Every structure is written in structure tokens, then in C-alpha cells.
Amino acid sequence: MTISLAIDTATSRTSVALVRDGKVLWHGSQIGATDHGSVLPQLVQTALVVSAEIDQVVVGMGPGPFTGLRVGISFAQAFAWARNIPLIGICSLDAIAHGIEIDEFIVATDARRKEVYWAIYKSGERISDLAVSKPAELVSGLPFFGEGSHLYQLSQSQEFLYPDPVALVALSSNQKLHVSAPLYLRRPDALSISERSS
Amino acid sequence: MKSEALVLGIETSCDETAIGIVRGRTLLANVIASSVDEHARFGGVVPEVASRAHLEAIIPALDRAIKEAKISFADLDALAVTAGPGLIGALLVGTSSATGLALASGKPIYAVNHLAAHVSVDALTHDAPLRPTIALLVSGGHSSLLQINDITGNIEKLGQTLDDAAGEAFDKIARLLELGFPGGPAIDALAKSGKRDAIDFPRGLTHAKDNEKHLFDFSFSGLKTAVARYIEATPATKKSDVAASFQEAVVDVLISKALLACTQSGIDSLVIAGGVAANSRLREVAAERAAKRGVELRIPAPLLCTDNGAMVAALGSLMVSAGASASPIDFSADSAMSVLEVAR
Ligand SMILES: [Zn+2]
Asked: Domain named Gcp-like: which ranges (chain B) (predicted)?
């Protein structure tokens, strides 16, 4: 019997779930692009009332807007460290794609600066690299899902907008999907002194 | 009821990922991982670079601090973390890590003010508790003059810099003199062989017309311009004289205003903290003039003057012993947190 605490802050939604052997004990979420820092502890505090015993932490590693993304990862790694339990990182786009029962599609989330983070999925697997692009560059004929698809009118679907924390737990049993570092995809926005003068 | 609380403090407001552990007023661990080298090629702290470095450094820093203090995490009575002011992305790595630790362990958490923490680190250097005091905070990030009535809950702001921080002024002049980065230690060293009265550089905001509005504020941009003009006009001048005269002007203004604040408030105690408190001439002048006025001078050990986690732990520990209530778990980090708010 394993109880997992799942956390994702890679989109404008902060999500938490408590899953025991595939069964959802509790889940909660709140939308707010700048609220992750105070919402996440509230949600986890509520989850811990349902079960204070946690065997592992699973966290969405992005890609996603950096500041919000780091809230989830830093919280998760500190929680796991204090409890001395395993921490597993999973790609947040995979946790959106997991529940979609269509053969081939694209998941796109908001990357700010009028761009989206995206990947192509086929037969339940990610078949492209993770990427960041302008929405207009994503003409494919494939159906779109994810917050970014909705934001840039690539799709009318209101489903599968955000990473599902329960899916994070389901994916965590596949070692090949484990991610050990944040998926930033972009370099820090700064020019070195030599770059600036040239 | 234990009298000596064991507290872990987390500081990530700028470019140092720092963890400190104290027991009461005793320092047990002070681990600092700096990303300063990563910023050097950008010529200043890049917030996103700092935030990424914090996320990578914080768990190893926690491990090292626990080991250094020779305790186990379970032994801790409370956690403390810098909630502001600082870079928001950097602060959030610290506060989110702290709430993660707090919820995992059920330990109370104190979300404290970075500036108040700079002053409270005095508790680790001096045995006698801090009486009401004037505090001068001088570093690359801040230049503030505070009146500390009670470090755990009653602080007044007397003044601050209107432009550059004192440490920034040192860095800029060091660049003009081609002394490299960081500028403080380099100017301090070079000034030792120069004449302090060689050049009469301006003392910002010290004239009668400034007193009404800016009695306790600072301004260093005029001084910087004056030094630049002087170097341009007299290229043959000795660098050591420029360094010594510049340093004298900064130190003179800082200490004059700090001691004036003591006189005006009737408080006969002065704490100086922040990286610039390591400047040897500042310490010399402060000691000399404070003694003359009968003001007790308290300067923390140099390693505790720059940003560190021990100062955050120290403030947490003082709050525990003052019986202050812990912060709600959903407190938010605040890049512009006022010093009037000691904890959230
Ligand atoms: Zn500081």
C-alpha cells in the first residue's frame, strides 16, 4: 500500500491530490496565476487531514512559467526531504495527456510572452520533443488540448486544460517518465556583458 | 517549556541560498551557497539565474546545516524564513521550501522581515539582549536607518537611500578605479595607503535645506558623479587618495546620520549590519564617534553581517522566546515587505 501526495504548479492552476494504490483519497485545486505560493500550502494542509501518512511525493516538473513552477518543486522537494521519502518528478504535459483517449493530438500550455509549451502525443506516448513556440507555428490538423490551446483559440475544448495530479501518480510507476530537473526549456532572460556590447 | 528554542532559518531573498540553525542565542550552523559567480558575467544579479540556483542549492544546504549543527531535523522547535523584501522569484523558493518543511513536520513557521533579521543577528554576537536601538543597515542591496523599539514587533523607519545603496556606491567607484568586483573590500584595502582628506568629496543630503525632508535619508549618486568628474579632470591623481577620500565621505555621512538619530531619539545604542559593516574605516569611525557620544556600538561578526540564514533563525528564536504567534501557513512572500512588518 502506497500513499502518494501529488502536486502540480506548472500552469495557472495549483493542484494537489492524495492517491492510495490508484484510488483518489482527496484532490483539490485553485486557479490563479500568481497565487501558487499561498494556495499550495493550504491545499496540502487540507490533504494531510485526510491522511497524514505519505509514502512518496510526485511533482509536475513543467514546462511552465518559472516562478509558479518552482513553488511546486521547491515545496515538494522540501516535504520529501523532511519526511525522508522519495520524490518523483513527471513532465506536466504528460499529466494533461494521460486521460485523453484520442490516437494523436497536441498538448499546449501557456508559456507567457504569447508563446506555448507543447508536445505531440500518439497512442498514449509523447512522440515529439518538448518545445516552446508561437501558437501560429503549430498548424498541424491535429486536435489540441491544454490551457494554451484554449487561450490561443487552437481548440474549443474545455477539457484537459490542466495537469491532472492523479495522472502524475499513475505515470510515476513508469521509471522511463521520471524527470530529475525542472523543464525550463528557455534560458534565463539576460544578456552577459560581452553579449550586450557586441 | 524549553527556554532555548532550536530554530532553523532560510534566507533566499537575493543571490545567497542560506540556512542557519541557532539554539536560543547560540549559533550552531551557518551555511551559505552563493550564486554570485554566475551573475558576474551579467554585471549584476539576474533574478531568474538566482532563482534557479536557489532551487538547486537549497536541499544540499539543508543537509549541510543539519550536519554542521549536529542535530536531526526532528529536534527543531521552529522554522523561520525570509518573506521579504527581496526578489519575488527568489523569495518564493525559500518560502515554498519552508512551508513544505513545516507541513511535513508540523513545526511552527515564522515568516520574517529580512531587514529586521539583519538587526536581530546581534543576538548571536552579544550576550546582553538588545535594548531599544538605532540600526544602520548598509549593504549592496540596502541603506536604511531604523529605530528598533522591540526587534520582535516594533520597528520604525527613519530613513533610507534615495538612489544607490551604500554598497552599490562602493561597487561603482571600484569600477571607475578599475578595481574589480565586489568593490567594497578593494576600496577598503587601497584606501589604507591614501590620504582621507586629499579630496573634499560632497556629503549627500547633509545641508540645512535637506534636513527638513531628508534628515535621515541618504543619497550617493551625487558623490559618484563627483568622483567620476574628478578622475576625468585629474587623471594623474593617486587612486589611493581617491579611494580614501571617497570612503571617508560615505562613512562620514552614514555615521553622522546614525549618531544624530541616537541623539534625537534619546537612544544610546547603535547596531550596524549589512555587508558594508565589514568596512574597516566605517568600524573605526563608528567606534570613535560612538564612544565620544556615550553610545553603545554593536556590530555583528563579519560573516553574520552579509545575507545569511543564521540571522533569520535568530529572529525566529527571539520571536519564540517573546511568545509571538507563528505565521499562518498560507502567508505570502512580498518583494516590497515594509520593515514595519517584522513578521507576517
Ligand atoms: Zn540583506
From this structure: 27-313
Judge whether A79 is closer than 8 Å to chain B, CB to CB. Answer: yes
Give the N- to C-terminal CA distance of chain B in Å, as an integer. Answer: 24
User: B52, exposed or middle or buried, with CB in 10 Å at 0-12, 13-18, 19+?
Assistant: buried
**Concatenated DSSP letters for A53-122?**
--SEEEEE--SS-HHHHHHHHHHHHHHHHHHT--EEEE-HHHHHHTT--SSEEEEEEE-STT-EEEEEEE
CB–CB contact B96 A39 (8 Å):
no
Please report the pLDDT score of residue A139 as a whole number.
Answer: 74
What whole-number distance in Å separates Cα of residue B133 and Cα of residue B151? 9
Phi-psi region of B30 (alpha: psi -120 to 50; beta: other; left: phi over 0): beta
Complex-level ipTM: 0.96
pLDDT, tens digit, for every residue of B24-40?
999 999 999 988 888 87
What architecture is domain A1-90+162-175?
Answer: 2-Layer Sandwich (3.30)
Task: Return the closest-CA partner of residue A44 out of A80, A86, A68, A12.
Answer: A80
Residue B342 DSSP one-character state: S
Contact B41 A193 (CB under 8 A): yes
Per-domain residue ranges for chain B? 4-122+303-320, 131-299
DSSP secondary structure of B42-77 = TTS--HHHHHHHHHHHHHHHHHHHHHHHT--GGG-S
Question: Is pLDDT at A190 greater than 80 in this prediction?
Answer: no
Question: Scanning every residue of chain A, which has its alpha carbon at the shortest distance from the alpha carbon of B330?
Answer: A38
CATH class of the domain whose range is A93-150: alpha beta
* A49 touching chain B per CB within 8 A: no
Please name the member of A78, A184, A193 whose beta carbon is closest to the beta carbon of B97. A78
Q: Which CATH number fits domain B131-299: 3.40.50.620, 2.60.120.260, 3.30.420.40, 3.40.50.20?
A: 3.30.420.40
Q: Which residue of A has its CA nearest to B329?
A: A41
Judge whether A169 and A19 are in contact, CB under 8 Å.
Answer: yes
Tell me which chain B residue has its CA closest to the CA of residue A46.
B103
Q: Mean of the per-residue pLDDT values for chain B?
A: 93
What tens digit of pLDDT does each residue of B91-139 get?
999 999 999 999 999 999 999 999 999 999 999 988 888 889 999 999 8
CA of B244 to the centre of ligand 1 (A): 25
> A98-135: buried (b, 16+ CB within 10 Å) or exposed (e) per residue?
bebeeeebbbbbbbeeebbbbbbbeeeebeeebbbeeb
Distance A118 CA to ligand 1 centre (A): 39
- With CB atoms and an 8 Å threshold, state whether A82 touches B98: no
Please give the model's pTM, rounded to 2 decimal places. 0.94
- In whole angstroms, what is the distance from residue B235 CA to residue B223 CA? 18
Residues with CB under 5 A from ligand 1 (ion): B 307
Subunit contact B99:A41, Cβ cutoff 8 A: yes
Dihedrals φ, ψ of B231, to 5°?
Answer: -65, -40
